[in-house]
Amino acid sequence: MLRTTVSKVMWVGRATVFLVGLAVILALLFGVASAAFAGNGDPWRLGRINVATSITKLGGEAGVNGPMLRLINNDSGTDDTALELQVQSGEAPMRVNSSAKVANLNADQVDGQDASQFVPTGTNAFVKNDIYKRESAVVAGVDKGDGTFVIAQACDSGDVLLSGGPANVNSTSTMVESFPTPGSTNSWSARIQKNGLTDNFSVVVLCADQ
After folding, report:
1. In a domain, 70, yes or no
2. Is the pTM above the cut of 0.70?
3. Which of 8, 19, 30, 89 is most exposed, with the fewest beta carbons within 10 Å of its own?
4. Is 1 inside any structural domain?
5. Does residue 200 fall inside a structural domain?
6. DSSP 115
7. Domain boundary among 30, 55, 80
8. CA-angle at 209, arms to 203 and 210, nearest 5°
9. Is the pLDDT of residue 33 over 60?
10. Selected residue with higher pLDDT from 45 and 73
């Protein structure tokens, strides 16, 4: 009888130790988990995974004189950034409510075009594709029978006509028309009135290489 009682006491003792140990392990596990995963309403835990299912706002009625938030990464590596934004495919990584220019923020592409596809010119900041000029021979032109003469000049086949106009016209002649050639998508025509005198002229076109 005494031996049976002692055995039961020892079994109860071992069970108690097991349950206490299990409780300690669970407490440690849940404690570490709660420390590693900060959720809604919790402080932002640095160096830990923070999980939120609603928007987190930083701001005040009066605002701050200067940046509201500054991120600094002084790691010596070559692939470091101060901020990384990740979203699902097809979604914008950020939104802004101002059209003011951001200093030192450079765009690698504009409407899908790389910076190498834009060239500086004297009249425009950037012009898409390669721009070239074509000029006709300096000749009398086609006599229209009314004292006027016409010359047409086209861009290379498949390229885009940007503009055009006459050149080498004498001061004694009068410009009548300067226009895209009817029925053509890449040609320019110019018609002048020579006023009974002799005059050779040409037509120049500006084209975009496609």
Report:
1. no
2. no
3. 89
4. yes
5. yes
6. G
7. 55
8. 135
9. no
10. 73
Residue 23 identity (one-letter amino acid): A
Question: Closest Cα partner for 176 from 166, 168, 162, 186?
Answer: 166
Q: Which residues of 26-54 are buried (b: 16+ CB within 10 A; e: fewer)?
A: eeeeeeeeeeeebeeeeeeeeeeeeeeee
- Helices (H), ranges, the chain: 2-36
pLDDT tens-digit map of 114-171: 766 665 555 554 455 588 999 999 999 999 999 999 999 999 999 999 999 999 999 9
Do β-strands 37-38 and 49-50 pair in parallel, antiparallel, or remain unpaired? parallel
Identify the domain boundary among 55, 80, 98. Answer: 55
Bridge-based pairing state of the strands 202-208 and 160-167: antiparallel
* pLDDT of 126: 47
Tokens of 173: 């002649």
Please tell me the total count of domains within the chain: 2
Strand (E) positions, the chain? 37-38, 49-50, 109-110, 113-114, 118-119, 127-128, 131-135, 142-143, 148-154, 160-167, 174-180, 187-193, 202-208
Per the structure block, which two tokens stand in for 201? 């002229």
What is the domain extent for residue 193? Answer: 131-208
Q: Is 177 among the domain residues?
A: yes
Question: Does pLDDT of 32 surpass 60?
Answer: no
Instruction: Report the pLDDT averaged over residues 177-203.
Output: 95
* Cβ neighbours of residue 154 closer than 8 Å, sequence gap 6 or more: 134, 161, 181, 184, 186, 187, 188, 205
3 state SS of 180: strand
Q: What is the pLDDT of residue 12?
A: 44
